[in-house]
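Risk register update: the risk that structure generation would not scale has been downgraded. Supporting records follow, first protein first.
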Amino acid sequence: MSMSNYSLKRYSAVCSCDDFVKSCVNVEKFLKLCKECRNYGNNWMCPPFDFDPMDVWKRYDTVRLEAVQIVPAQTTKRLCCDVTVYAYDILTEVKKKLRAELLEEEKKIKGSMSFYAGSCDVCAECARIRGEKCRFPETARHSIESIGADVSIAVKKYLGLDILWIKDCKLPEYLTLAAALLVPKQESI
């Protein structure tokens, strides 16, 4: 898919991890939602975990929330399946670019950790399905939602954006991907 099919708007905000957790994190709610997803128990970056997600948040001091607003060139009527495939293709392409950027930022900031937009899709099929270890731990990351963050609240509070959804087989004005880079105490962005 070429860039002519959509345009991008980038947004970023930095906040304290404590404030982010107080206003945007609800681990219990999101673990319950994750149980309804096909990736639950089938992706190493998705629940159930052998750790408490709140312990992850406690290790960090700062959150840099990153959002990409994707404005599709075509918002005309299409078949429902076409709209879904079209949106999925765009989101997948942009998500890969965002993932690469976040991994580069991790290299620059010692001890930082990125959390992707949506489920980890580094592999076509996660090794967890076969009871094997993660094949790419250097690039596999949890989604920000899987560790309890409510992305809708976060992008509204810190970026002033609403997340829009496909409705009645029509693309919204824009699609949104949100991810985060968490920075440990003693480091700066």
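Supporting record for the second protein:
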Amino acid sequence: MSHSNNRVKEHETVHHLISRIAHRVYFLKDDERKDFLEIVRRTAQFSGVRLLGWCVMGNHFHLLVFLPTRKFVSEHEVIERYGALKGTHAVSSVAAMFTEWRKQGETGERRVSEWLDAQRRRMYDIGIFMKIVKQWFTTEYNRRNGHKGTLWESVYFDRAVPPRESEMAKCLAYIHLNPIRAAESDKFDGYTWSSYTAFRKGDPTATAGMRFIYGNEESDDAIANRHEFLLEELLEKEKLRRAEEIARKRAAGYEVPPDPLTDEAMVAQRAAHLAEVQKASVELHEERNYEKRRGKRCALREQETIALLASNPEMNASLLSERLNVSVRTAYCVLKQLKNKGIIQQEGGRWRTKPAK
């Protein structure tokens, strides 16, 4: 996951963008979230970045965007996009400015071209898109609330999403599940600042984003059914994750209150599962330790046997078992292992040791 807004982004790519309020405090109220989405829409229209989905929470936001191939933008379209960003009054101001400049002849035409090129360089760039959004919103927020300084935590995070339906749909479902995870809504389409809610209400931008991902062949209801199936899958995984986290903390002795997203039955189930995993882990560890200890005992027994046979070549298994303090059967096994390894050999009732093969 990149967190640099200066890295050049490849075109024809999909990006999951995240940025958080500084110190992760909950600054964004309803009016501010409304303003933020308006800024995002207008900036996307200016930059040529296609907005596919969004979710604006109280202290952070998620955007899913598509970065198309850069194209040449005519003078008329540059001014039109600039107007989308700055407002309709800006169009009149730019037109008047161009008229005055062009009265200067060649010098004025050069100034017009430089201004247009400067605007074109701001288009089709993820980093500049995010820079405009965050700086513009910060300026508006600080002006209205008497806040000073930065509003956002560090730079934004950017995860490139493979432009396949399955990957884009999963990413958008993850984004749309945020209000449920944060207990801001108990319905998938019950959170005002989510593009899924906007899609269900017929918002053109949200609908175009869903159709970009799922295609145009199906109805809106069919797309909603497919998307909610993914949301249900992710929600079940999130419930299991929460239940396991609670079970782990309680097993460690922490007092953890119930979580509204999961239930005590699921926590108990995960606790039983963790206990089984822990038991299996302990058994495996003990088994490995036993095998290690057993190997050491066998090696020491073999070394002792070699030393006994060297001092008494006529020693039999019965005497060897007494000296080793093992059964006669075990003594036979030790002698057999050493013979198989080529360390000892019996000739005429006497044992002879020789170097191992």
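The beta strands are 13-20, 50-56, 60-67, 157-161, 344-347, 350-353. On this basis the risk owner (M.S.) recommends closing the item.
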